Amino acid sequence: PGEEKNPGGASLMVKAGVLENPKVDMIFGLHSYSRFQVVEIGYRYGAAMAEPDEIAIKIKGKGGHGAAPHLTVDPVVIAAEVILALQKIASRMIDPTENIVVTIGKIEGGQTTNVIPDEVNMLGTVRTLNPELTPKIPGMIEQILKGITSAYGGDYELNYDFGYPVVMNDDQANDILIEAGKEFLGSENVKEIPMPSMGGEDFSFYLQKVKGTFYRLGTANPEKGTTGYWHSSHYDINEDALPVGAGFMAYLALKALEKL
Fold first, then answer.
1. 75-86 and 137-151 helices, crossing angle to 10°
2. What whole-number distance in Å separates Cα of residue 189 and Cα of residue 199?
3. Is 164 an annotated catalytic residue?
4. Which of 21, 59, 82, 160 is such that its CA lies 20 to 30 A from the CA of 172?
């Protein structure tokens, strides 16, 4: 439990010994998925979910009257250029075959209509799948911030917080999952997920210690309006998926115990 926020609940649980007493040999986790129907599950071999890093940026300018911007260093305008420039990391600064997302989810600055503020604060996230690429991203962000703020006489602060590891599913665990899924739900309801998600999941901390896999449980039902994507205002839980998920997880545990 961590909802993509550092340090992630799983990391703390691992440190507390949750995998040691009793010793865990294999672990399975599920997540709701509104792209699949109820009774469908999804699996993926290898990298399944991204590393979710957090960024906090402060643009520092010089405030003043909104009618006299020439006497100020406007952090709002600078922030606007920074947000657009950050998107060039994915499109112009790294190999286009790499998977990366840079999103600014919060921007805050100013109090009223006619005053240019002294600073603007932004919060965002960076998602990557390649552990060799990830350490290079803070430098790219720093390069953009330095160039844009210095051009307008401003300054900046950057805090880059590396997040959870990439979710790497184990082949053996996936094989057990697929076999159990076909037996419990039917072959037609066990689906491979063709692409990794750029979402993050602290379940990855467990997978660093023991074999396991993180799979998807379908929750979609258009008639009930449960097709909204995660974190959107349209998302709604479909309680019909609860007995399916609980029943299959119990069956999966028994199947794993037979195989191990």
1. 140
2. 23
3. yes
4. 21
How many helices (H) and strands (E) are present in the chain, helices listed first?
Answer: 7, 12
Residue limits of CATH 3.30.70.360 in the chain: 51-161
CB-based contacts of 110, cutoff 8 Å, min separation 6: 76, 116, 117, 120
* 164 touches 204 (CB < 8 A): yes
Kindly report, residue by residue over 25-83, the tens digit of the pLDDT. Answer: 999 999 999 999 999 999 999 999 999 999 999 999 999 999 999 999 999 999 999 99
Cα dihedral: 3, 96, 47, 241 (round 10): 50
Q: Is 179 a catalytic residue?
A: no
Nearest alpha-carbon partner for 247 in 41, 19, 17:
41
> CB 159: neighbour CB atoms within 10 A?
11
pLDDT tens string 93-135:
999 999 999 999 999 999 999 999 999 999 999 999 999 999 9
Tokens linked to 173: 């665990």
Using omega within 30 degrees of 0 as the cis cutoff, is the peptide bond preceding 69 cis?
no
Is 51-161 a CATH 3.30.70.360 domain? Answer: yes
Q: Which residue type is seen at 225?
A: G
Residues 109-124 as b or e (16 or more Cβ within 10 Å = b): bbeeeeebbbbbbbeb
List every span in the chain annotated with CATH 3.40.630.10. Answer: 22-50+166-259
Q: Give the count of alpha carbons within 13 A of 18, CB side only.
A: 15
Q: Architecture of domain 22-50+166-259 in CATH?
A: 3-Layer(aba) Sandwich (3.40)
